[in-house]
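Narrative of activities, Objective 1.

The group set out to show that a structural description can be obtained from nothing but a protein's sequence at a throughput compatible with the screening campaign. Below is one input-output pair from the validation batch, recorded exactly as produced.
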Amino acid sequence: MPILETQEISVRFGGHMAVNSVDLSVEAGEICGLIGPNGAGKTTTFNVITGLQAPTRGRIRLDGQDITSLSAHKRARSGIARTFQRLELFGSLTVRDNVRTAAELNRTMARPVGDVADELLERVGLTGVDNQRADALSTGSARLLELARALACTPRVLLLDEPASGLDEGETDRFADLLMELARDGLAILIVEHDVPLVMRMCDHLTVLNFGEVLASGTPKEIQKNQAVLDAYLGQDPGAPG
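Output recorded for this entry:
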């Protein structure tokens, strides 16, 4: 059974239907990609899942339980964590204290928050800069710190909104390896990303949105051969860097 499901999610802003009857599902240990042109409704869908935007219609389920009426705070406590397009770090705090702060908010955690922070910083490769201020980090390191903070909430489902934005090729490869390792450990990951080669390499399943609706859904190989997706988004060379 999927750990996360959306059923016919729709969002209307006045006369504009931003998202229309979107069905998604993510299983534990799976990386699913949500892709499509700018304005396709990807971030709005994320906002609905995390409780930042109420749906006009539709339901969200976590482990089979309807969480549509839960607040964003309660959804986070239930096991949904998220990163944003724009970095959301505490710039004046150290790298370690950014993760400690997230761990302190996780009331289900029995271990000392310092131990948790050290373990997560080691896992994402930031041990050597743990005492630096967060606003002194490179974009690549800041993305890793944002991931560590999300993991400090011990999520079962992780939503990543354009996490490779601003990363160079080497940083992107290392980030992808880390996400695939997290999925192998059982984490369910849903990712919005415009780096097509990255999602084709990393994702088990892709859903393509266009004008707020699901244009196609399938494996990366199936999506790369889908003519409607090629016409609307990927073009004729879906493996090209972008």
